[in-house]
Structure formats: structure tokens, C-alpha cells
Amino acid sequence: MSHQQDMIEGAPLIKPSSTDHPLYESIVEACRTVFDPEIPVNIFDLGLIYTIDISSENDVEILMTLTAPGCPVAGEMPLWVADAVEPVPGVKSVNVGMTFDPPWGMDMMSDEARLELGFM
Q1: Largest CB tally within 10 Å, which of 22, 53, 68, 75?
Q2: Which residues, 6+ apart, have CB-to-CB distance to 77 below 8 Å?
Q3: 3-state DSSP call for residue 44?
């Protein structure tokens, strides 16, 4: 009984992505073409893409965040991501959602992004 409770308490705040889906890598590559206007690193390596959820019908749900809630392009970023992912062969539809829970932090950046920005 307590074991199951631990599993629920230990559930990640960020829903896992469909990493085993055949379209996953192509969608990640598409996300890598979108850059944060204030930082010269793509949004995937920055850690702004929280979840890429791909249904069996190839409908794509992306949950993303921003480096800061007051980001000047907050309203545009999801559209940029949708525009980048929609043309990926096999993708049926794209829906990009925005969240600030959990808030983005430097620790979500890839090592490449940290190197690029001189944090390593």
C-alpha cells in the first residue's frame, strides 16, 4: 500500500514525452529550429520544451515554458513551435500549451546550451 503511495508522490511534475514514438526525433529537430530571441540557443536545448506527447494518430501535444513569464514573445512562442512542428512529415496536428509549473531554471538547459552561453 505504502509503495503505491510513494509512486504517486514521486510522479514527475513534467509529464514524460513519447520518446519511443517514431516521430519523436523529427519533432525534437523541428523544435531545435526555434530560438529564444533573447538567448542564442534553441528552445529545446534551453529546456523550454517540457513534454512532447504524440498520440497513436500522430496528433502532437507540446507543453512548453519560457525563461521568464514576462518574456516579450510569450504570446508568439507557441505559434513559432507549432509552425516548426506542423510541416514534419507524418504529423497530423499540433497543439502547443504553455505552463509555468514547474518554473524554468538554468538546470533545465542541456550541456550544449550551457557551453554556448559560457556557463560551463
Answers
A1: 53
A2: 34, 43, 48, 64, 66, 71, 98
A3: helix
Residues in contact with 5: Cβ distance below 8 Å, sequence separation at least 6, in sequence order: none
Give the whole-angstrom CA distance, residue 41 versus residue 55.
28
Please tell me the predicted confidence (pLDDT) of residue 14.
84
Q: What angle do CA 104, 30, 103 make, to 5 degrees?
A: 10
CB 45 within 8 A of CB 108: no
Is the CB of residue 96 less than 8 Å from the CB of residue 62? yes
In single-letter form, the type of residue at position 55 comes to S
pLDDT in tens, 17-62: 999 999 999 999 999 999 988 888 999 999 999 999 999 999 999 9
Give the helix ranges, DSSP H, for the chain. Answer: 2-9, 24-31, 43-46, 77-85, 111-116
- How many whole angstroms separate alpha carbon 59 and alpha carbon 21? 12
